């Protein structure tokens, strides 16, 4: 099938290349000239495991352009995979979704065959039918579900294993009303053997939010119990191993630590809270989930101060700046909260991350430009005896922590075994 993908960020690029791997031809659309050139020259503009190899292997089966017309006229189905960032008040910013819809709508006017538009971007329930559909209809002068198809197909990709998640998902959720569109999507995903759940459009939109909110809740819940375990001298990882053996609960996604970050959980929980409040609901669980997560990184500093009450003038090493390992992504990273607090306490900070130092400095200049960066984790350990572990990169497992005060936000085994003073956040 011929597929076009609007927006070549993480989701667009991984999804598009996933469809290429499944035997389709893909045209990516983006506004960023640099990205377009990179993709068309088979170079991934982001780091994601397996992506570079895939782009190399399937050269000629995809390219990128800024021209919507070319992309839509030469494809049967178009995925909207643009960003839906948070506004100041937590609500979601639909500027890019609206822009993409307008551009697609204008071209749909000229298209004779039945074209299918699929919203992949995370949007609140009601958006595809309440915002995207009217724009497409107005710009094209055509009717959705009759002259062109429209569906919502959320993504559940984890950064770092996104391609694997695309090809071997736990499930595929497709919000679709008309038969013709359903047929196109069934065909597109035919080679993937996973349960396929067909719902109406707003249900599919909600499944994405409810999934992320539940996972965030699971971690915040574990962290809250973990904080109590810490005070009682109980290992919370063992506790959740035991709890997770109940098949109704599942052992996955139960690691206590300094909390969740990234591009999805913080943004999506905030947007859902905002939406619930707009509807006159008071989502007290979700608000507590977010609050626990905001406090959690500060536990690291609390534990550090048990051993070094006065941080002023002390040098503190920070290992890890990315929001999780195997990515250079620093969006909503817990490292920001930790570093900010250390600086406020008057500490000198020396940090190291294998991939994310540049991004950290650029994304958080208020703290990023006030700290030092080391060339390696070993250099951090040479510079100071006080170490905070913020991201569980595997290379941090190999270090010799002996003689150090280590406060570990992610439970790195070697640190636990060798440090002079070892404190894990919640265990
Ligand atoms: C997440 C969802 O998993 C994915 O389905 C959705 O589409 C996008 O958001 P991602 O942001 O890539 O994916 O990261 P994920 O691996 O899920 O981790 C999110 C955060 O939770 C990280 O900061 C991680 O450190 C933290 N986490 C995860 C925990 O603290 N404990 C856990 O047990 C699992």
TrEMBL record:
InterPro entries: 6-PGluconate_DH-like_C_sf, NAD(P)-bd_dom_sf, UDP-Glc/GDP-Man, UDP-Glc/GDP-Man_DH_C, UDP-Glc/GDP-Man_DH_C_sf, UDP-Glc/GDP-Man_DH_dimer, UDP-Glc/GDP-Man_DH_N, UDPglc_DH_bac. SMART domains: UDPG_MGDP_dh_C. It catalyses: UDP-alpha-D-glucose + 2 NAD(+) + H2O = UDP-alpha-D-glucuronate + 2 NADH + 3 H(+). Its EC number is 1.1.1.22. The lineage of its organism: Archaea, Methanobacteriati, Methanobacteriota, Thermococci, Thermococcales. Residues 317-415 form the UDP-glucose/GDP-mannose dehydrogenase C-terminal domain. It comes from the Archaea. This is UDP-glucose 6-dehydrogenase. It comes from Thermococcus barossii. Keywords: NAD, Oxidoreductase.
């Amino acid at each position: 099938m011929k597929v076009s993908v609007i927006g070549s960020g993480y989701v667009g690029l991984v999804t598009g290349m996933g469809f290429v791997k499944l035997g389709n031809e893909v045209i990516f659309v983006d506004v960023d000239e640099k990205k377009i050139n990179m993709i068309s020259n088979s170079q991934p503009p982001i780091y994601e495991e397996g992506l570079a190899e895939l782009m190399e292997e399937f050269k000629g089966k995809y390219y990128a352009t800024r021209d919507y017309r070319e992309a839509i006229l030469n494809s049967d189905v178009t995925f909207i995979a643009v960003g839906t960032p948070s506004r100041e008040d937590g609500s979601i910013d639909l500027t890019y979704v609206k822009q993409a819809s307008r551009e697609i709508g204008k071209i749909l006017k000229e298209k004779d065959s039945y074209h299918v538009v699929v919203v992949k971007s995370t949007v609140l329930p009601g958006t595809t039918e309440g915002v995207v559909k009217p724009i497409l209809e107005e710009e094209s002068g055509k009717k959705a579900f009759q002259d062109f198809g429209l569906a919502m197909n959320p993504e559940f990709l984890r950064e770092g294993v996104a391609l694997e998640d695309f090809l071997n998902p736990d499930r595929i959720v497709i919000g679709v009303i008309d038969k013709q569109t359903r047929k196109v999507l069934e065909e597109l995903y035919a080679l993937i053997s996973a349960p396929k759940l067909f719902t109406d459009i707003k249900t599919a939109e909600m499944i994405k939010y409810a999934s992320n909110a539940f996972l965030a809740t699971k971690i915040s819940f574990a962290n809250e119990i973990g904080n109590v375990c810490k005070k009682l001298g109980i290992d919370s990882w063992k506790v959740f191993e035991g709890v997770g053996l109940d098949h109704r609960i599942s052992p996955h996604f139960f690691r206590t630590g300094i909390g969740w970050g990234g591009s999805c959980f913080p943004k999506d929980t905030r947007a859902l809270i905002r939406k619930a409040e707009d509807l006159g609901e008071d989502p007290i669980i979700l608000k507590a989930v977010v609050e626990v997560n905001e406090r959690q990184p500060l536990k690291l500093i609390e534990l550090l101060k048990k051993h070094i009450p006065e941080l002023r003038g002390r040098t503190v090493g920070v290992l890890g700046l990315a929001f999780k390992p195997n990515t250079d992504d620093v969006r909503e990273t817990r490292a920001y909260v930790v570093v900010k607090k250390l600086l406020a306490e008057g500490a000198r900070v020396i940090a190291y991350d294998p991939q994310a130092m540049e991004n950290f400095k650029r994304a958080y200049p208020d703290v990023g430009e006030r700290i030092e960066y080391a060339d390696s984790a070993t250099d951090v350990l040479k510079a100071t005896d006080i170490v905070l572990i913020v991201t569980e990169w595997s290379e941090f497992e190999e270090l010799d922590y002996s003689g150090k005060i280590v406060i570990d936000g992610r439970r790195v085994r070697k640190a636990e075994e060798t440090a002079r003073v070892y404190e894990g956040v919640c265990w």
